[in-house]
Write a structure and sequence with these properties.
The chain is mainly beta and about 450 residues long.
Length: about 450
């Protein structure tokens, strides 16, 4: 097939050759994708389109190894060399059914991870060139659908009806003087991005895809070439993929393919903020033993003054685990319902607990860090949210400690001298409720 020539070595194609040859095609095909294609040279009558599409899909799937062989694959791991911005570095691309995807590679001289966990697309780079963040962050909207489409383990022609894809036969199209069979693919995850696939008339293999993709935050034309198909586990996989996006050329050269390698789902999930790893075990369903004092100034040795109760609590993780939220009811001492929200502030390097209860009806903000004993100690001593009670200013402190997989303890303390000394108010002991111990859903 006639096509733009590759530059020598890993360099990008010269603009004056590649783009000059592609622009006429882009303007007449991509911009008119939803209208009658200008390059078609043969097209079936409207009533025969569905049958022609089905036959083309059948031929293509057979050429790629067949649906059964593809469905036998649960995971794929591709490794090799990735070239972009004239830099060539190793890459690892992993896919897992149903729609998990992770691509670790380099853009210029720094690493870049692009991933999809089945619901959320995220990326992570050591420099905020693309994501404007140096931590793992959700991808902006223009990138979401394209990343979700890349997450499909198999080509879109494998059982498209089950995936919700629509595939239309456009007949034979001429690309740079050569005839191809052309299919129009509309994916369920991205119905506005119509893809045009060109199949070789003899092998029926996909050799070219035209689509739109995000480029520096904006959607623009993308052309992808598929070459060097090799058989792996009964299916054919391209071992060289070249993508032209905007002014850039990216080349992926596959050196090794591993099939059905065990890959944990956690690999595809966005990592927690560094601080939230400490709090992650708190998420779940808990049985809570509560001990409280009717007067915060009572000395802790007076055990008879402690009032005991038990309740059940659920701590839920939100925003990918970046926020933990709990609502708990305390019936001892002063009955109250309380809400707690745990988070970590990466910019100030502090943990933050926002507490609200129906007794004070006051939003209390506590901040702190782990102490020398490994306890997480948070107080409102410096946040300005202390309460006034009985003509006294009461500062609050919560101490999280003995955190294990199935239990942890939380002590709430108060101070009447500005935080110089602290006395106990409530002690919570959390024990995880096993799944089999949960009540049946109605």
């Amino acid at each position: 097939m006639s096509r733009p020539e590759s530059a020598s070595g890993p360099e990008r194609r010269p603009m004056n050759r590649a783009r000059a040859r592609l622009l006429p095609l882009l303007t007449t095909t991509l911009l008119l994708a939803l209208e009658a294609p200008a390059l078609l040279v043969a097209q079936a009558p409207a009533g025969e389109d569905d049958a022609a599409a089905a036959e083309a899909i059948e031929r293509c799937v057979a050429a790629l190894g067949g649906q059964a062989a593809w469905r036998a694959i649960e995971t794929l791991e591709l490794t090799g060399r990735h070239t972009s911005f004239s830099h060539t570095r190793p890459f690892v691309l992993r896919r897992k059914r149903p729609d998990l995807y992770r691509f670790d590679h380099n853009e210029t001289s720094f690493p870049l991870t692009v991933a999809f966990d089945g619901e959320t697309a995220w990326w992570h780079t050591g420099q905020p060139l693309f994501s404007k963040a140096s931590w793992p962050a959700e991808m902006p909207r223009p990138y979401l659908a394209g990343t979700a489409a890349e997450a499909e383990l198999e080509p879109p022609f494998i059982d498209p009806d089950a995936k919700g894809h629509r595939i239309e036969w456009l007949g034979e199209s001429r690309f740079e003087g050569q005839l191809f069979e052309e299919l129009r693919v509309t994916r369920r995850a991205d119905p506005e991005n119509v893809e045009r696939w060109f199949l070789d008339l003899e092998s029926h293999m996909p050799v070219l895809r035209m689509s739109r993709a995000a480029y520096h935050g904006y959607l623009t034309e993308q052309i992808t070439y598929f070459e060097d198909y090799r058989e792996v586990a009964g299916v054919l996989i391209p071992h060289r993929v070249e993508t032209e996006l905007g002014n850039d050329l990216m080349i992926m050269e596959v050196e090794r393919v591993k099939v059905n390698l065990p890959i944990d789902d956690q690999v595809f999930r966005r990592p927690l903020p560094a601080g939230m790893e400490r709090l992650a075990p708190l998420a779940g369903r808990w049985r809570v033993a509560i001990e409280s004092l009717d007067d915060p100034t009572v000395h802790p040795e007076r055990l008879a003054a402690w009032e005991r109760d038990e309740t059940v609590s659920t701590i839920r993780a939100h925003f990918g685990g970046s926020l933990l939220e709990e609502e708990i009811t305390v019936t001892t001492d002063r009955p109250r319902r309380a809400s707690r929200r745990w988070s970590y502030d990466r910019f100030s390097d502090v943990f933050r607990l926002v507490h609200f209860d129906t007794f004070t009806e006051h939003l209390d903000v506590l901040e702190g860090r782990p102490d020398d004993e490994g306890r997480l100690v948070l107080s409102n001593r410096e946040t300005g949210t202390a309460v006034r009670l009985h003509q006294q200013t009461l500062h609050a402190r919560e101490v999280l400690h003995h955190v294990q997989a199935d239990s942890f303890r939380l002590d709430r303390e108060v101070s009447v001298d500005g935080g110089e000394t602290w006395g106990p108010e409530i002690r919570f002991t959390y024990t995880r409720i096993a799944e089999q111990d949960l009540p049946a859903r109605p």
